[in-house]
Design goal:
binds flavin-adenine dinucleotide; Flavocytochrome C3, Chain A, domain 1; 22% strand; 14 helices
Length: 463
C-alpha cells in the first residue's frame, strides 16, 4: 500500500484514523482545505457506529439549552458545538448527504439522515475517493511517530494481513470512536461491573486513539467514568448487532426501575441513557423495568420511525431469552421475579410506596425522587424485563482544545495531533446531547486546523 498521490506535491498530508462519523467528516474537510488524506479503517468497511445508528443528527438549540441538558460538560467546547452545528449541517448537505429537519422539543435541533445513515456513509466515502483520497480498510492505526520536540510526524499503520508501515504526515486526526469495546479500559474507568456491560456499538472502538495518544504524553479529559448507552435485554439474551435500536428500552423513563434488592435507585425520568449509567453501578449491573398495560401500549410497543423498525420490546426481549415476567397483579409479578433473584418483599414495598406517592401527586418526594412521567402501576397486566446497560460510546477521552488539538498533561497542544468524535472527551459528561454532532463539528475543526497549521511542501509529505 502506498500513500495517496495527489497532484500538488506541496499539499500537506493528513492521516485520519477511523472512518466513522468524525473520521469521514474530517477526511472530507481536510481534502477541501487542500490536504492529501489517508483514511485508515480498522474494520472491513467504513461506517463505524455511524452506520449502526438511527441517523438522528441533533444538537441543543442554544448554549443555554446545552448547559441545562448537560450541566457537567465542558463549557468552552460545548459553546463551539452549539455555535457551529448549523454550519456543519449546511456543509454535510453540500457533501451530498440528505438531511430532513424533524419536529422536536424546543430545546433541540433535529435532522434525520435520509434514507438512513448507511447512505450518508456511502455518500461521504464516494466523495472522498472521487476527490483523490486514499481509504485503507482492515488497516489500524498502531502507533504515533514524534520528533524530538514531541510533535507528531507520522503514523504506524497495521494492515490486518500485512506488515506495520510508518506513514509520514503533517497531522494525525484520531477518530477511532472511543474505548467502549475494550473491557480492560472499561473496568479501569467504570469499576467492578464494567465487564458485564453489553457492547452497543461497532466492535472496533477499543480505545486505540486514547492509548496511542497517552503513550506520547496526551492527557485524559474529564468524564472518564461516564458513558452514553441504553438499557438492553439482559443475558442470556444476545441482542443482534444490526438491530440494537429495536431492542433498546427507551421507555424506562415512563416505567419503574428496581435492582435485585427490589429498590429504586435513580429518577427514571432523567432518561434511559442516564439510567443506563445508574444500572451499571447496581449489583451485577442488572435492573428490572416494571410497567403496566398503559405504558406497555403507549411506550413499550413502538411504531417504525426515526430510522428504526417497529418493535414490541417486551415480547421480543422474551423471545431473545431475557428474564421477563407478565402477571395479573403486582404480588404475582414480585413472586415471578424471585426466580431471577429479586427480593420480592422489598420489591412489593417499593411498588406500593411508588403507587401511593403517584396517587398523592408526591412522587418527587420519594426517597429516590421521581420528578416527571410518573405513570402509576395500576392497569393489569404488569410487565417486568431484566435489563443490562448497553454502552454506545464513552463520554471521556482525550483532552482537547477548541481546535480539537490533543493536549498534553501540561495542558499544551501536541503539535500535529487531533482528536474528534468520541475520541475527544469531556464535551458531554454524565448526560448527553447527541453523538453524531460531536463528530460533525469537531471533525471539521480538527481538519481545518490541521491543514492550516501544516507547513506546505515539508519533507514529511513524501511517503
Ligand atoms: C445503535 C446506535 C444508535 C445510535 N443512534 C444515534 C443517533 O440517532 N443519533 C446520534 O447522535 N448518535 C447515535 N449513535 C451514536 C453515534 O453513532 C456515535 O456517537 C458516533 O458514530 C461516534 O462517531 P465516531 O466517529 O467517534 O465513532 P464511529 O462512528 O464509531 O467511528 C469510529 C471508527 O474508528 C474505527 N477504528 C477504531 N480503531 C481504529 C484504529 N486503530 N485505526 C483505524 N480505525 C479504527 C472503527 O472501526 C470505526 O469505524 C448511535 C449509536 C448506535 C450504536
Amino acid at each position: 500500500m502506498s500513500p495517496s498521490d495527489l497532484s500538488d506535491p506541496a499539499a500537506p498530508t493528513v492521516i485520519v484514523a477511523g472512518a466513522g462519523m468524525a473520521g469521514l467528516v474530517a477526511a472530507r474537510q481536510a481534502q477541501a482545505a487542500g490536504a492529501r488524506v489517508i483514511l485508515l479503517e480498522k474494520g472491513d468497511a467504513p461506517g463505524g457506529s455511524l452506520a449502526l445508528s438511527g441517523g438522528t443528527l441533533w444538537c441543543a438549540a442554544s448554549y443555554a439549552d446545552l448547559r441545562r441538558l448537560v450541566p457537567l460538560g465542558d463549557p468552552h467546547l460545548g459553546r463551539i458545538l452549539v455555535e457551529e452545528f448549523a454550519a456543519g449541517v449546511d456543509w454535510l448537505r453540500e457533501q451530498g448527504v440528505t438531511l430532513s429537519r424533524q419536529p422536536s422539543l424546543p430545546d433541540r435541533v433535529v435532522y434525520l439522515m435520509q434514507p438512513g445513515p448507511r447512505a450518508a456513509v456511502a455518500q461521504l466515502v464516494d466523495a472522498f475517493i472521487a476527490a483523490g483520497g486514499t481509504l485503507h480498510t482492515r488497516s489500524a492505526l498502531a502507533g504515533l511517530a514524534t520528533d524530538a520536540h514531541g510533535a507528531v510526524t507520522g503514523a504506524l499503520v497495521h494492515p490486518a494481513d500485512g506488515l506495520r508501515t510508518l506513514y509520514p504526515a503533517h497531522a494525525v486526526i484520531l477518530a477511532t470512536g472511543g474505548f467502549q469495546a475494550n473491557p480492560e479500559l472499561r473496568a479501569r474507568y467504570f469499576g467492578p461491573n464494567a465487564d458485564r456491560l453489553i457492547l452497543r456499538s461497532n466492535p472496533h472502538s477499543t480505545g486505540d486513539g486514547l492509548l496511542l495518544a497517552q503513550a506520547i504524553g496526551a492527557a485524559g479529559s474529564r468524564a472518564m467514568s461516564s458513558f452514553y448507552g441504553h438499557l438492553l435485554p439482559a443475558p442470556p439474551a444476545v441482542v443482534p448487532t444490526h438491530d440494537f435500536i429495536a431492542y433498546t428500552h427507551y421507555h424506562t423513563a415512563q416505567a419503574v426501575l428496581v435492582n435485585r434488592l427490589g429498590a429504586r435507585f435513580t429518577d427514571e425520568s432523567l432518561g434511559d441513557e442516564t439510567s443506563a449509567q445508574a444500572v451499571a453501578r447496581q449489583p451485577d449491573a442488572l435492573a428490572f423495568v416494571i410497567y403496566d398495560a398503559v405504558v406497555y401500549r403507549d411506550f413499550a410497543v413502538r411504531a417504525a420511525g426515526g430510522g428504526a423498525r417497529a418493535s414490541d420490546t417486551f415480547h421480543e426481549s422474551a423471545a431473545l431469552g431475557a428474564p421477563t415476567v407478565q402477571a395479573a397483579s403486582l404480588g404475582e409479578l414480585a413472586a415471578g421475579l424471585e426466580e431471577f433473584g429479586v427480593y420480592a418483599p422489598g420489591l412489593l414495598e417499593t411498588l406500593h410506596a411508588y403507587n401511593a406517592a403517584v396517587a398523592a401527586g408526591a412522587a418527587h418526594r420519594l426517597a429516590v425522587p421521581r420528578r416527571d412521567h410518573a405513570y402509576p402501576l395500576t392497569t393489569p397486566p404488569f410487565y417486568a424485563v431484566g435489563l443490562t446497560p448497553g454502552i454506545t460510546f464513552t463520554l471521556g477521552g482525550l483532552a482537547v482544545n477548541g481546535d480539537a488539538q490533543v493536549l498534553d498533561r501540561r495542558g499544551l497542544p501536541i503539535p500535529g495531533l487531533y482528536a474528534a468524535g468520541a475520541d475527544a472527551g469531556g464535551i458531554h459528561n454524565a448526560q448527553y446531547a447527541g453523538g453524531l454532532c460531536l463528530g460533525l463539528v469537531f471533525g471539521r475543526r480538527a481538519a481545518q486546523h490541521a491543514v492550516a497549521a501544516a507547513p506546505r511542501g515539508n519533507a514529511a509529505a513524501q511517503g
